[in-house]
Amino acid sequence: MTIKKRYQGILAYFQQEQPNPETELQHRDPFELLVAVMLSAQCTDKRVNMVTPALFEAYPTAQAMASASVEDILQYVKSVSYPNSKAAHLQAMAQKLVDEFEGQVPDNMKDLTSLPGVGRKTANVVMGAAFGKSTIPVDTHVYRVSHRLGLSQGKTPNDVERDLARHIPVELRFKAHHWILLHGRYVCKALRPDCLNCGIQQYCKQYKA
Q1: Catalytic status, residue 99
Q2: Contacts (Cβ under 8 Å, ≥6 apart) of 184
Q3: Is 139 a catalytic residue?
Q4: List 121, 133, 155, 189, catalytic entry
């Protein structure tokens, strides 16, 4: 099977089965999304969604969060993974938004990755979900599933992102991120991939092998 046919088959399946995928992180605006994505690193969306309602009630804006202490923020996020570093990053991120961006979340990679605690994957999620840009965030699910399916053999997340962008039409890139991520979360799991109930097994390089 050619790489072109593999991509075409997989994208066609997801377009039919899940035409409008969305992030499972609950948020109301770009600031809340940025905070939620930062908290979601090595943590489940379910856990983050349990934490953020109270956090956002206390600190609904960058200005409010910037005025809080790290210790104050920690009380709201202590049940997520790496709470101490995440609380520190949130406070510093909010402070920089206030100091340099008038409290508004920027919409480009350069400015987003200048914020404390924000890497390329987080920036791509925010640009795609909050600002409608054609990004392909690569997290552990996207990285793993892309390799299993045979969509990429890239050694780093950036390599995988470039491979996916090379083969996926611009208008489908952010949707494809969700499709692959959710497939990895619920079907093509890390330890026990559910190959027998996978709708794209005919296109999967590892299943064929």
Answers
A1: no
A2: 140, 141, 142, 144, 145, 190
A3: yes
A4: 121
